[in-house]
Design goal:
The complex is a heterotetramer, with 2 copies of chain A and 2 copies of chain B. By secondary structure, chain A is of the alpha+beta class. Chain A has a single domain, classed as Beta-grasp domain (Ubiquitin-like (UB roll), Roll), CATH 3.10.20.30. Chain A is built from 3 helices and 5 strands; from the N terminus they run βαβααβββ. Chain A has a 5-stranded mixed beta sheet with strand order 2-1-5-3-4. Chain A is globular and about 35 Å long. Chain B has one domain (2-132): Molybdopterin biosynthesis MoaE subunit (Aldehyde Oxidoreductase, domain 3, Alpha-Beta Complex). In chain B, α2 runs antiparallel to α3 (99-116). The longest helix of chain B is centred in the middle third of the chain and has 18 residues, at 51-68. The termini of chain B are far apart. The chains are: A alpha+beta, B alpha+beta. Chains in contact: A-B, B-C, C-D. Chain B binds chain C through residues 11-12, 15, 19-36, 85-86, 95, 97, 99, 102-103, 106-107, 110, and chain C through 11-12, 15, 19-36, 85-86, 95, 97, 99, 102-103, 106-107, 110.
């Protein structure tokens, strides 16, 4: 399946784009999406801290199974307020 | 009342929205852009938001604060875009029958908001440097519902 | 800014008076007239003040909060006379570089004000009864400078 | 010396006046003023709780020595806020 990963903050700047398209097996997990994203954009691993993932506007853990219709986002720890 | 806005935050309106004959206490917190952090002098701040998720996260916070504290009304607003020194970046306000709960709920709300709402702050310093700020360390008081996710990811 | 007034309290003005480029945090507390206390229904409240001493006591509180907490600015206002349901009886607001100190200073200020500023509240109930309210019990957080006088006199 | 004691709240209502004049020896203390006031207005003792005293707009303890020029006030525990 094709998934478009929304990127924010330093992740967006390092990637140079607001979203990045991944090709993943059906029923891939967040952990698999993380590996695929970092293989495509290795600078993300070296130049940001741990990246958080969100699915459909809520935080998701590594074992969350993804669907093609999900809104998936990846970003550094938040620092608002 | 939950708001994510690029305009100046109207804390008067926000505060009026929580006043009630049932309330004996209202606590308002404003987070404002500070010029100095130690020696480092800030020129201005840039806040980036993931708007749909930030709004959803603030709605979850409202439900959590209502479940955990005896609050009557809750309102919060976060601004994003470019902010000048002294500008209000965030406002949270709660009303409660008694002041102990109003202070506790207000404190919990701003602590938890800072660790859970997807907004990021980029410092633009007076000397021309700029940097995305790291997250605040999570304190024990910030009992986020998705705390397992957050605590394990956060630098301490 | 310290105010003892028979007019409605302008919390917007009070809050603006403490904002500063040095502050990252502002905490405002409002005490408002609540309709129900358990089963008892309040119709309106009457506050009596000893104006000269109340003003002097609030000035002492400002000095104490500045000595004990890292606050930048402090403002407080207490209203007296006849107040209706929902009216603001008291407002205290502090600014501080960081939010922990702003919450602590704001909480200390309202707790201490309630135990030290010579103002008295008379409840007028919906059923026609009226009574002067007893003082709040002193909590350990209310470390008043004249605490020996107060603690020994206060019902617990 | 003559001292006019300002009364507030329930103390004012029970006394029926906003101030009450006491005749005290020179260098009398707050404790002596308290005894004199309660002798003149016994209802104050039975119908209010402990009364607080203030001299020149600050709280005063029982051993505070009074002067004729002092502003002296007597009132129940405060209940503002």
């Amino acid at each position: 399946m094709k998934l478009s990963i929304l990127l924010f903050s330093a992740a967006r700047e390092i990637a140079g784009c607001e979203s990045f398209e991944l090709h993943l097996p059906e029923a891939a997990t967040v952990a698999q999406a993380r590996v695929a994203l970092l293989q495509s954009l290795p600078a993300l691993a070296t130049r940001t801290g741990t990246l958080l993932w969100a699915v459909n506007h809520d935080y998701a853990s590594d074992d969350r199974v993804l669907q093609e219709t999900d809104v998936v986002a990846c970003f550094p720890p938040v620092s608002g307020g | 009342m939950i708001e994510l806005t690029q305009q100046p935050i109207d804390f008067t309106l926000l505060t009026e929205s929580v006043r009630s004959h049932q309330a004996g206490a209202v606590v308002l917190f404003l987070g404002t852009v500070r010029e100095f952090t130690g020696e480092a002098r800030t020129a201005w701040l840039e806040y980036e938001a993931f708007p749909e998720m930030a709004t959803a996260a603030m709605q979850r916070l409202e439900a959590e604060v209502r479940a955990q504290f005896s609050v009557i009304e809750v309102a919060m607003s976060h601004r994003y875009g470019q902010l000048a020194l002294g500008d209000i970046a965030v406002a949270v306000v709660v009303s409660s029958p008694h002041r102990a709960q109003a202070f506790e709920a207000g404190r919990w709300l701003i602590d938890t908001l800072k660790h859970s709402v997807p907004i990021w702050k980029k410092e633009h310093y007076a000397d021309g440097r700029m940097e995305w700020l790291p997250a605040e360390p999570v304190k024990s008081s910030g009992a986020v519902s998705h705390s397992e996710t957050i605590d394990s990811e956060q630098p301490e």
